[in-house]
Amino acid sequence: SQQGEEDPQALSIQEGENATMNCSYKTSINNLQWYRQNSGRGLVHLILIRSNEREKHSGRLRVTLDTSKKSSSLLITASRAADTASYFCATDKVTGGGNKLTFGTGTQLKVEL
Amino acid sequence: GAGVSQSPSNKVTEKGKDVELRCDPISGHTALYWYRQSLGQGLEFLIYFQGNSAPDKSGLPSDRFSAERTGGSVSTLTIQRTQQEDSAVYLCASSRAVGKAYEQYFGPGTRLTVT
């Protein structure tokens, strides 16, 4: 398994529903970030949660972090068709990693009208 | 201000040829990163630069891959004697600092196809 694995791999929901994606990782981290990618090109940073934080909100996004379980979740509330994208978690390791992020393989979210 | 830019956006090359991919980071960002993303996969770290320090090359897959960053700004990723398995999207990112919890800003990527 890779550091930073998301599940599910794919998620299809109706507009207005909530979408929840999970991420698990293996080593201790400084922080965990979530990114969105449209059409297989550049990534857009969504939210960063530090290892001493448990929950963070940004607009319709809610991220939780459980360092004891080495897991994080991203919740998108009241989803819109424009939220259709791939979502990646990325971890920044405690030692030796600098600010080098390790990405998971992502969750492909499809929001249907 | 301008974001991270990359060129070319698409590159098709024949197996065995060398290619150069360019990245212009956001002005003032001291850290620059290169990643590779194969079809349907996550991002694979290749190399990062921070200020004048020696780059972290731990992710480069072979000695055919090299990168440089001139004047602490523009970076070039060079792949020599390209192979078909090098086909991927190559993404560049920059951030304000290393060692702190700063987000990375990504460019649109270069899609490399080796025929």
Summarize the SSE layout with pairings.
The complex is a heterodimer of chains A (113) and B (115).
Chain A: E1 5-7, E2 10-14, E3 19-24, E4 29-37, E5 43-50, E6 55-58, E7 61-66, E8 71-76, E9 85-93, E10 101-103, E11 107-112
Parallel strand pairs in A: 2-11
Antiparallel strand pairs in A: 1-3, 3-8, 4-5, 4-9, 6-7, 7-8, 9-10, 9-11
Chain B: E1 5-7, E2 10-13, E3 19-24, E4 31-37, E5 43-50, E6 65-69, E7 75-79, E8 88-95, E9 105-106, E10 110-114
Parallel strand pairs in B: 2-10
Antiparallel strand pairs in B: 1-3, 3-7, 4-5, 4-8, 6-7, 8-9, 8-10
How would you portray this structure in words?
The complex is a heterodimer of chains A (113) and B (115). Chain A is mostly beta strands and 113 residues long. Chain A has strands at residues 5-7, 10-14, 19-24, 29-37, 43-50, 55-58, 61-66, 71-76, 85-93, 101-103, 107-112. In chain A, the strands form two sheets. In chain A, strands 2, 4, 5, 9, 10 and 11 form a six-stranded mixed sheet that branches. In chain A, strands 1-3-8-7-6 form a five-stranded antiparallel sheet, with no helix packed on it. Chain A is globular and about 40 Å long. By secondary structure, chain B is an all-beta fold. In chain B, strands 2, 4, 5, 8, 9 and 10 form a six-stranded mixed sheet that branches. Chain B has a four-stranded antiparallel sheet with strand order 1-3-7-6, with no helix packed on it. The termini of chain B are far apart. The mean pLDDT of chain B is 91. The chains are: A mainly beta (113), B mainly beta (115). Chain A binds chain B through residues 2, 4, 30-31, 33, 35, 40-45, 48, 50, 88, 90, 92, 98-106, and chain B through 4, 31, 33, 35, 37, 39, 41-45, 48, 50, 56, 59, 89, 91, 93, 95, 97-109.
Structural key phrases:
heterodimer; A: 113 residues; mainly beta; six-stranded mixed beta sheet; 11 strands; globular; B: 115 residues; four-stranded antiparallel beta sheet; 0% helix
